[in-house]
Amino acid sequence: MSEQVTLTLPDEVVKRVQTVATSTQRELEDVLLEWIDHISLQLSPSTPATTEATLLQQINLGFSSDWWNRYQSLIAARQAETISESDLAELIKMSEALEITNVERVKALGELAQLRDCSIEQVMEALDIKLKTELDV
């Protein structure tokens, strides 16, 4: 069951949602629902199993292969110094979305490490997560 709700959001929130939605090729509503769900899970008491499952879901969030292909082609154009202004703006938005997503993933890794009473490195090793640089992309 779902209920329709109308919200008035500050301009800066709308801009952030639009940036993430555009960069991740998702609908505004989907991004907002994900954020609301994320915050509500943080605020509500939950069992360790639910928390761990939620954290694993956050850690595993990613972008589509089409998104990565576009991102890599924009980086290549920038490196070749052939990137247009509009493509550069798109690359900046995509980079911001990637940064936001990575921050959320690292937060979730930290929370999972605390939950498991181990280091972030141990969690990353257990989940087979490797550090990547822009050169690895």
Could you explain the architecture of this structure?
- The chain contains six helices and no strands.
- With 137 residues, the protein is mostly helical.
- The protein has one domain (11-136).
- Helix 1 packs across helix 5 (85-116) and helix 4 (65-79) packs across helix 5 (85-116).
- The longest helix is centred in the last third of the chain and has 32 residues, at 85-116.
- The termini are far apart.
Largest sheet: none
- How large is the count of helical segments? 6
Distance between the termini: 41 Å
Mean pLDDT, nearest integer? Answer: 84
Number of domains: 1
Shape: flat
What portion of the residues fall into strands of 2 or more residues? under 5%
* Weakly predicted, low-confidence segments: none
The residue fraction in helices comes out at over 70%
**Cα Rg:** 17 Å
Tally the beta strands: 0
The structure class reads mainly alpha
Helices and strands, in order, run as: HHHHHH
Layout: helices, strands, pairs:
Blueprint: H1 11-24, H2 28-43, H3 48-59, H4 65-79, H5 85-116, H6 120-126
Brief digest:
The chain has 137 residues and is mostly helical. It has helices at residues 11-24, 28-43, 48-59, 65-79, 85-116, 120-126.
